[in-house]
Design goal:
It contains five helices and six strands. Helix content is 29%, strand content 19%. The strands form two sheets. A four-stranded antiparallel sheet has the order 2-3-4-6. It starts with 5 loop residues before the first strand and ends in a 21-residue tail after the last helix. The longest helix has 14 residues, at 66-79. It has one domain. By secondary structure, it is of the alpha+beta class. Strand 2 (14-19) and strand 3 (22-27) form a beta hairpin.
């Protein structure tokens, strides 16, 4: 991963919604969902807008530790296969760099898998006929 790389959501199986600055990102294939709050939400929005780590962190002072934590966050998003590198780059935005610089963090992603079985269930075919959806049939 290069600092100049731009990213996009992996495919249509990755959906996100902004809830007052906290992004909830859902991976419809794995059933996991992710919380990106505070600084992490700012980074997610910037990634969706086509910004690289370099353009997001342009407003940070030299040696600022947030640069490394933002890079780690983007690495975690790649590791969870939520985003993939893209060939095209956005024009660096002063507003995006200012938003990242104004954010104090934290730049972390929280992962939840407690609803994974229900989120990946097929509500038409994966049911217990006696109980109905959302209860999946027990494996034999």
């Amino acid at each position: 991963m290069q600092l100049t790389d731009t990213f996009r959501p992996r495919d249509s199986n990755v959906a996100s919604e902004d809830f007052d600055g906290e992004f909830v990102v859902l991976d419809l294939e794995s059933g996991k969902y992710f919380s990106l709050a505070d600084g992490a939400g700012v980074v997610w929005r910037a990634l969706q807008d086509g910004h690289s780590i370099e353009s997001m962190t342009a407003g940070l002072p030299a040696g600022d530790t947030r640069r490394g934590t933002i890079e780690s966050l983007v690495g975690a998003l790649v590791a969870h296969t939520l985003i993939v590198a893209e060939a095209t780059a956005a024009t660096p935005s002063e507003a995006t760099a200012q938003a990242v610089a104004a954010s104090g963090g934290p730049f972390t992603v929280e992962v939840y898998d407690d609803l994974a079985d229900l989120l990946v269930a097929d509500p038409i075919h994966d049911v217990d006929q006696g109980a109905g959806w959302p209860r999946r049939p027990q494996d034999d």
